[in-house]
Each structure stands twice: as structure tokens, then as C-alpha cells.
Amino acid sequence: MRGGKELKEEVQDKGFCTLCGLCVGRCPYIKSLEDKIAVVFPCGIEEGKCYAACPRTFTDWDTVEQQVLGDVDGRDPLIGRYTQVWMARGINPELTRGTQDGGTVTTLIRTAMAEGMIEGAVLTATSDGLAPQAILVTEAGEIGKTAGSKYIAATTLQALHQARRTGVEKVGIVGRPCQVMGVRKYQTVVPEECNQDNTLVIGLFCMWALSYGFRDYVRQEAGGQEVTGIAIPKGELQIKTADGTITKSVEEAKQFARSACNLCWDVTSELADISVGAAEFAEGWNTLIVRSERGWALLGKALKAGVLEIKEYPPAMLQELRMAALGKKRRVVAELNRIQNEGTSMVDLTSPRFKSVVEGEVN
Amino acid sequence: MQSVLTINEPGTQVLMMGNEAITRGALEAGVQFCSSYPGSPSAEILSFMAATAKTFGHYAEWSTNEIVAIEAATAASFAGLRALCIMKQNGANVAADFLMSLGLSGCRGGLVVVFADDPESHSSTNEFDSRNLARWAELPLLEPGNFQEAKDMTKWAFELSEQTQTPVIIRSVTRICHGRGNVVLGDFLPKKPANKLGQWDKLIALNPFHPYTHQKLAKIREIFETSPFNTYTGPENPELLILTSGTGGFYSQEAVSRLGVADRVGVLKLGTTCPLPAKLVKSYLEKCPRVLVVEEVDPFLEHNVMVLAAQKEMLVKFFGKASGHIKGPGGPGTGELNPDVVMDGLSAVLGVARPSRNDVVVDPEKDIAIPARDLTFCAGCPHRASFFATKNALEIDGRQGVVMGDIGCYTLGGAKAGHFLLSSLFCMGGGIGMASGMGKLEQFGFNQPVLAMAGDSTFFHACLPGLVNARWNNSKMLFLILDNEATAMTGFQPHPGTGQTAMGEKGAPFSIEGICQAMGADVYIADPYDVAATTEKIYELIQQPGVKVLILRRTCALVQSRRGPKPKVWVDQEKCLGDACGCGRFCSKVFGCPACIWDAAAGKARIDEVVCNGCGVCASLCPQGAIQLEGRD
Amino acid sequence: MALARDPLNIIICGVGGQGNILASELVGSAAVAAGFLTTIGETYGASQRGGSVMSHVRLSRQLQYGPLIPKGEADVIVGFEPLEVLRVFRIYGNSDTHVILNSRPNYPLGTLIGESKYPEIAQILNEIGRVAARVQVVEATELAKQAGSAVSTNVLMVGCLAGSGLVPIDVVHYEEVLKQRFEGAALELNQKVFEMGVQAFPQV
Predict the structure, then answer these.
(1) Could you count the other beta carbons within 10 Å of the beta carbon of residue A244?
(2) Which one of A156, A208, B538, C54 has the fewest beta carbons within 10 angstroms of its own beta carbon?
(3) Which of C90, C109, C123 sits opposite B376 (nearest CB)?
(4) Does B412 lie at the interface with C, CB-CB under 8 angstroms?
(5) Chain B residues near residue A45 by CB distance under 8 angstroms
(6) Segments making up each domain of chain A, as ranges
(7) Is residue C2 part of a domain?
């Protein structure tokens, strides 16, 4: 029997929370501001959905994956089950304005809404490229405002509950891997609140998310200038202000990576319907991983509508992506082992999924 | 409309509240200038004075605080006018610096100061006995023991004050101030105009006058020896003498009668307790050297009479607080008197049975466990939302911010109603002063956010020096000013921020934000009903250095509810999650508004429409959007 | 009229905000008009803060009694809230005590937040009834609401007391006091609910 009390003790107090926003949006006892979260009042409920759905409580990856992508044959130990990998980019300038890289995410979510796959989208907005904000968008025209990468961790899934409460039945979600897992566990634990058939999950690639210390750092670097945007292409941190762009090493940003991210096994949102990340080798393009039937259908609609362009993904580049994932997975498994020795079991490390990575069986 | 305060029908018997009786006494004496700062149990007196000011042609003001009030009243006395100044026990401390000098300077026109004590602290944070202050200040002290005396003593106090050129203290207590009883009305005396002050008319409190103070007190003692306010009832030679003052007279009389010992016990009730009418008391001690002293709170009379007996080398057996015979549940010298305390004491001293009609037997095993009824904020009170938002912000912040409390309705926030949020509680203005100090402790490794919380009226009363100090010394703290546009705790009196005077005239409206800005603090304003925005603002401000001020502004729900129809709030029970995960009765269980009740039959939340004041905050907190609000701006 | 028991000790009790003070003042003023030496003791501090409040009203032909009734010596308890009546009855009641009680509960903070349980009304009535000389229950809040406003529940309860025959004060005195205290629509409402209270129980 685990509830809010245990969520606080086993996840929040230990610094494991990813700020996915799932619990805080559902439960009035839990509150969050910036990158802090707290169970403000004890709810007294012994068996809490917050604990059960949290991506940072014990997660049976095999079972969840089976439920979500059980009918997908291809399984890659490093980037998850998928059917196709493409280079992709949005080709309708109306839809890609203000986007990072290829504008694929914005194009896909707009397509999903235009085509009636979803009625609303759970997204992350920001006014200054820094402080992110969870929002529910129900007008296609509003989606553009959420375009562009946000590097600071956002409690995006809060807006998922807003969708539910305002009667938005078919909902699209764009989230980091931890948030994708949050949604999937939620679908398992409370299917009546979040039906898998009515949900479209677009997953992002993610190596880490930053804390609010990054915002203070950027503001300091901007020296009083208004910050208009942030970008981190190819090992470079770019701080955009009205006066021009200040360039720093990406290492400057990385020092603000949240320690909770060191426990994140998933780099490419392996449980999403479709995953999107940068394609660092080709400017203006994204990497697109199609996983589920629903993801495939969405891609088809975008192509048919002529708003997205795809091309074959260079096998060498795919291998590079896989090796990047492997590097992270190895570091993470070491961390997962460490916290397991300290008494927190977040996954079943004896499962082949994890063992194979550590024991060097993959390549 | 005619009232018991205004009817000019001497000899008529009416029911009067003690505070009305004191007011009426001052009116009958022709009082011209009245000043006070609201405090329970005396707040009504100045309100009555203000309400009757036009009828009688006197002046009444709510002063910024008690020391200003006594200074203003003394000025009127200086000009030869009769002046009344009213304060609760804690207010007497605020005024003490000036009061301590008044014995030296004396006065001109009759100057009467009412100290209203609150034994057992019914509506105070603490109890104490302000009679000690009167003795310390070397000012004569009168103690009314019933409602008639409350009126008559006040009236006479002006006469005594003028006759002896000495300010007179009247010490009342809650049971007189807020009790009611029969009073026979007297006549209204004529008023004298103000004197012109000449070059050598001075009112100066310097030590060379000290001997004169003592001479005046000696004269007053003589007057007290024959005062009709000192009464004796009982046999010529009693075997026990009850020496009492104030409400002790009521309870002593009842105890004697209830125990059936009227032929054995005499009651000497003193109305003029300091300076002690020594000859009078000595004459009774000579008749009966066994004395039970009955008074509240401290053994004030008891000690004075003990000293007297020692001076006169009399062998007297004392019963009372020192002997442990007069004691409430908290022990001697704590709490208020009541008939049971005195009956218990008297029966023990006399060795007679204590009569009782109580035949209710409670079986703790089988009978109902009565839940406590904690004091809480009223339905719709903006303070509930302010505390809720503060609690949220501090918990999210996670550094265990400390909140220094202050005096007002929001003091209740130190208890369950405010999630036990207050870390300190002292006196008016105590919170900001403590916070200014605590905000300087970083160099010693103290890294918790520091907050102070005070109300709007308290802000003007006592917070300005503390805020100046915080700014001057670069403290790091957040000052939350709970501005509900009234002195709500004591009955919605105006204060400098409201721009209204006691007499309903337009005064200069002071802007709290303007004052704080002038002090150089960063000032922000939030609406506590907007819990999310307020939480965010508090969180944001406790991350920042320096002195920050956040004014949480919302009219007191009770004031608002008198202005017009209340907004409607109700629960859509279809949507309500009730006890289930995702809510768990959040509105009633956590927010704790008395209007958010539980419909046990339905297993759903319900709004008690009789209690609800329509603030709608619960509607904004409901995770399901099940609580509906209609008609609020 | 003389008193069967002198002093006659009446307690009016309820929760802050229910209008306890006004009720005791109405009774007290009527008593003075009827020639009684009357003393009232009040609790003010909790008056609007949801706490337990209680007014002691003491009538005598002989003495100006003190503002507090000794424990166990209430002759009449008029209660605006069931739990408060039980609380007061245990301390001030006895087997001669008459109780007039409004049946509508007002939940304490501890009950709202789930720390304590509000007892069944039947349980409360049962425990009081086991000892008290008589318990009369009136749905005062509901009646007052029907008459126009729940705010006037207190005056309705004063009507119940006035009509109960327990206090030898002629109803005319109460009616006079109402006229002195109120005017316009408030007077009409209060006169109406007072009369409803007077008629609430068939005379003993």
C-alpha cells in the first residue's frame, strides 16, 4: 500500500522526481512551482494513484512495453521497439515558424489536430525560452506558440488533467521520456481517466533536463538584456537576446542538469507512439522514430497533407544514435544499481533489458 | 434613536453592558475628549463614544495606537477638558512609557484611563493584571465590581482626577466590560470650555516633581478611606473576612449565600484599591484577623494587605492565592474567578460542605466523546486563503520558512485554522521586529526563509519601526501584510488606511504600499482569493534578497457580507470525487472552511449555505471543478 | 411574578456567529423591563470565529448576581447547536434543567478535517434526555429560513424560550424590546420568527 506519503519519502525527498507533472496535476495535495515539488498536506489515502503512476516508483518496463507496443515486432535494446526511422522535417512554413531543427513535432501535432486524431494537445510553452509552462491547447492556431525546445524541466503532464476535466477526450501529448512513461503507467493504473485508444503520445529525445539554476545563469550571462531564446546545437549553448547571440559551451548548461535525470534509462521515448529528436548531422532535419500503429497513421496523414517531408535515415547515423543511447544507458544502470544498494528499486535490473546493456551484449 | 447611553431620565433602570455603563458614566461626567485603540474587551467604549459624539458635542478618535491615544487625551486634559482614554491590558503596556510619567506631571482637566483586563484571555493572547501598572505608575486605581459601579465610578473618577490633578485609572475586566446588568441612570453634568494655555502653563514630567506625586497620593488615600465604593456586608464580628475587589464581589456574595454562612462571614469589597485605604482595611482586620482575599488575576490586594499587616504588626491569617485556596484549574494567580472557584475556596477555609446541584454523570466509556471546537477563521475569511497560500509556498520551497506572527484575527493561523504556520507570537508589531533580526542570521548559517505576518491595523499600530529597522539594516525577509480593510478582530473599526475616522468623517487615507515604498522596500500586492497567484508570488519573493513586502488585500468577509447579497456557491455532486484518490475531501479536510461540509449520506462535499460567505476560494481549489460559484466579481 | 427558584439561571449557547449575544440581550432587556435584577455574562472573543459561545443570563428578585452561573446550576439551556448543548449540559446541567435545542449541527473544524467525528443527533438527545427534566427540539434554522432568513434563528429561539413558560416574563416585554432594537424589514422578520418561536411548542 503506497500513497502520497511514500511518494514524498521515496521519490521527492530523495531527489528522484523528474517533474513530469502527472501527480501534481491530478492531486490537490501536491503542488509544484518552478523545479520544486512538494506533498503540501498529507492526504491520508493509503493506496494512491500518484504513487502507482509515478515514472519514478518501481516500474515493470516489460509489462508496460508489452501493453503499449506489444504488437510491434522490431525491438532494439537501445532505442526501443519501432517500425521505421526517418529523417524528417516540416515543409509548411506556416506550421514551422519558431521551431527548432526541422519543426517536425509542431507539424505532427498540428496535423493530428487538423485531422481530428486529437481534440487537444498537452504541450509546453515558454515566454522567454527559459521558464517552461504546461498548457493545454485546443485551437490549432495556438500550437505554434509552444514551438521550440525547452531545456528546463517542465511539469507538462499537469495539463493532461486539465484536458480530462474540461472534457477533451482525444488528447495528444508531447513529452520527455519520463513523461511518456508517466502517461503509460497512468493508462495502466487509471485507464478510466486516460484511455490508451484516445491518446496520442509524441515522445522527445532527451539526455537531461535542466534546473532553474540555468535560468538564473542565463539571465546573468545576458547581463540585463531580455532573453528571447535559447538553443543548444552541436555542443554549443546559444543565448539569444535583442542585441545578438551569446555563445557558450554546452558544458555550461550541463552543469545545471537535474540529478534525477541520471536515473533515466530512456533516451528516445521508447514507449511513445512516435518519437522525435534532433538530427545533429543534418541541419534543419529531425530524427523520427515510428513505433505504434497510431504513430504510423499520424505520419501517413502528415505526408498526405504535404506538410512533412521524410527521407531515409543513414544507417551510420542510426548507429551513432544507438551508441549515444548505449552510453547513457550504461551510466544510468550504474546509478540504478547504486540506488538499489541504498534501498530503492526503480526497475528490475535482473531483466535481460537491463542486463544486456551492462554486460556488453549489445552493439 | 434613543439609547441607554443618551436618554436623559435620571433614576430610570436599564440593562447595560459594562462598556455601556463606563461610556454612560463618562457621558454623565461631561467628557469632552475620548481616544482609544481597539482591543477586547474594551473596544465598544470608544465606538459608543463616537456614536454619541454629535449628540453630546464631544470628540472621539481611534488613535494609531495606545501611547498616541494617551498622549492625545492628556493634551485635552492639559487644556482643561475632561478626557477619557481606553485601552486593553496589552495596550496599557504600549502606553506605559507615557503613563509612567503621568504621575509626575499630573493633569488639569479630569483625565480617566480605562484599563480593560482580560483574565483567562478570552479574546487576548495572554492575561495579566494591569493593576500592577497603575501602582507602578503611581496613579490612583478604581475597580468597579458591578455594572452600576462601572458607570458611577467612571463619573466620579473625573471629579477625583480634577480635584487631585491626577489621572485616574479604572481597571475593568472582561466580565464587567462584556457583562450586562441593571443600572440606574444619573444626570448629565455640564461641560466647561477649553482653557487658554499661558506661557507658564506647563505639563512636565520631570523627577523633581516626584515628591509632589507622593503628596498627592497621600491625599488620595485619605479620600479613599471614606469612599462609598468600599462596602461591607456581614455580621459585626465575622469569623472570616472576605476581602475582595472587582468581580470578586459578585462571586463572594454568591458563595456566602450559597454556603449559608452569611452569619459567619463578612465581605469587604474595595472599589478604591490603590493607594490602599489602610485605615479602613486595618479597622476590619482588627475585628477579624482571618482573611480570605478574592481577586483576579494577581494577588495584588493580597500583597498590599499583607504589607499593611506587617507594617502595623498585626497577626493576620491570610487565605487566598498564596495559600492556594483561590485557584482556577491553572493554579493560583492564573485564569479568571468564577462562583465555583470562590465557593471551593470558602468551603475549604470554613470546612463546610460545598453545595452542588450537578447530578449529571458522564460515563467516559459509553457516552459521547465531544469533539473540540477549535477557533477558526470565518467562512470566506481572506486570512484562510492567505495562510493556505503561504503554507503551499513554504512547502514547495522546502527550506522550512519561518513565519513570525502578530496580533489580530490572523493570530488564529498559529493554530489548526492556519496549519500551525506561525513560529512566534508576542505583541502588536512583534513579528516584523523579530523577522528583521532573524533576516540577519545568514552569517551564522541560518538559511531558512524569514517571513513576518501582520494585519493592516497592526501595521499602522506597531509595525513601522520594525520595517524601518529591517530596511535600514539590510535584513532579508518577506513581510506579508494581511490587509482586510478593517480592524476585524475587535469589530471592524476603521484605521489610518481606511481613510475614515471614528466619528465617520473623512480622514487622510494612508496607503500601506505608499508607506512601504517610501521606506524603500519592494512592494507587491496580491489577492489572497487567487490562491495560485498568491502562492507563486510568495514563493518568488522568498527566493530574493532584501526586504520584500507583499500586501494580501481582500476585504474582511464579514464586512463584505454586510454590503450586499452573497455570491452563491454549491457543489455539483455528480463531479465531486468525495473520499476517492485525487481529492480525499480536500475542501473540507484541508482547506477547512466551516462552510465546506461533508454530506455523509451522499459521500460527497456540500456547502453549508447558511454559513457560506461566497468567497469561492474552495471552487478554485476543487480538483474536479465540482464547486460552482455564481455572482462574485 | 416571583421566581420558583431565585436566581433563575439561563444559558444560551451555540457557535460564534449564530447570534448568541443578541439573543441574551433580548432576554435580559425583557427581564429588566419585567422588573428583574438581571445579569448577563458573555463570551465575545470567539463570537465570530467559529468557537463555542455561551451567554449566562441570571434573573433574581433579590440580588444582582454575578455574570457566571456555578457549574451544575443551569435551570434552562437554550441551544442553537446540538453539540454545544451537550457540551454545556454536561457542565451546567442537572436533573431539573429544561433544554430547548435547535437540531441543526454546525461542524467543528476538527470534524471537517476528519480528526473527530460529529455524533448522531439522536445520541446527543438521548444523553441529555437521560438526565434533563425536559428536552424540546425545534428545527429553528429551517423555520427561520422559511420565514425569510437563517440569520434570525436566534430570535426564533428566544421566541421558543418566551413561549415555554419557563421564564416568568410576559411576551409583551420581548415584543417591546424587539421594537426598540429593530426597524423596518428586519423588525417585521424578527417579529414573525419570534412569534413562530412562541408557538413552536404547545404550552406545558
Answers:
(1) 9
(2) A208
(3) C109
(4) yes
(5) 581, 584
(6) 4-211+257-358, 213-254
(7) no
Domain B13-193+209-225: which CATH number of 3.10.20.30, 3.40.50.720, 3.30.1490.20, 3.40.50.970: 3.40.50.970
**Chain A residue whose CA is closest to B591:** A41
Tell whether C3 is covered by a domain.
no
Cβ distance of C108 and B371 shorter than 8 Å = yes
C-alpha A119, offset from chain centre: 20
Q: Region A120-134: what's the mean pLDDT?
A: 88
Residue pair A92/A307 in contact (Cβ under 8 Å)? The answer is yes
Give whole-number Cα distances, B6 to B62, B186, B572, in Å.
21, 11, 52
User: How many residue pairs bridge chain A and chain B with CB atoms within 8 Å of each other?
Assistant: 56
Distance CA A154, CA A175 (A): 9
Q: Residue C139 and residue A292: Cα distance in Å, rounded?
A: 64
Contact C83 B371 (CB under 8 A): yes
Are C39 and B590 a contacting pair at CB < 8 A? Answer: no
Contacts C144 to B, Cβ<8 Å: none
| Mean pLDDT across B222-238 | 98
Q: What H or E segment, with its residue span, contains residue C167?
A: none
State whether residue C174 sits within 8 Å of chain B by CB.
no
- C-alpha grid cell, residue C194: 419570534
Q: For the stretch A254-284, what's the b/e string if a residue is b when 16 or more beta carbons lie within 10 angstroms of its beta carbon?
A: eebbbebbbbbbbbbbbbbbbbbbbbbebee
Answer whether residue B633 shows pLDDT above 70: no
Q: In this model, does residue B374 exceed pLDDT 50?
A: yes
* CATH code assigned at C42: 3.40.920.10
- Each residue of C3-48: pLDDT tens digit? 889 999 999 999 988 899 999 999 999 999 999 999 999 876 555 6
Residues of B in contact with A36 (CB under 8 A): 396-398
Look up the CATH number of domain B231-350: 3.40.50.920
B292 closest CA partner among B311, B269, B310, B260: B269
Q: How many Cβ atoms are within 10 Å of B327's Cβ, its own excluded?
A: 17
pLDDT of residue C204: 44
Contact B100, B137 (CB under 8 A): yes
CA angle B56, B60, B65 (to 5 degrees): 165
How many angstroms separate the CA of residue A180 from the nearest CA in chain B?
21
Q: Cell numbers at residue A97, please?
A: 515558424
Options 3.30.70, 3.50.30, 1.10.357, 3.10.450; CATH for A213-254 is 3.10.450
Neighbours of chain A (3+ CB pairs under 8 A): B
* Shortest CA gap B384–chain A (Å): 15
Q: Which chains touch C (3 or more CB pairs under 8 A)?
A: B
Kindly report, residue by residue over B316-340, the tens digit of the pLDDT. Answer: 999 999 999 999 889 999 999 999 9
Residues 6+ positions from A162 with CB-CB distance below 8 Å: A25, A136
Q: Quick check: C17 contacting B, CB < 8 Å? A: yes
Q: What is the pLDDT of residue B375?
A: 87
Which H or E run includes A62?
helix A61-69
Q: Count up the domains in chain C and report the number.
A: 1
**B374–C108 CB contact, under 8 Å:** yes
Put simply, the answer to whether B610 touches C145 (Cβ < 8 Å) is yes
CA–CA min distance C3, chain B (Å): 17
Q: Which residues pair with B455 in a beta bridge?
A: B482
Q: Domain spanning B568-630 has what CATH number?
A: 3.30.70.20
Contacts B147 to C, Cβ<8 Å: 39, 64
SS3 call for B243 = strand
Q: Which of C94, C110, C150 sits opposite B357 (nearest CB)?
A: C94
| Contact (CB, 8 A) for B616 and B629 | yes
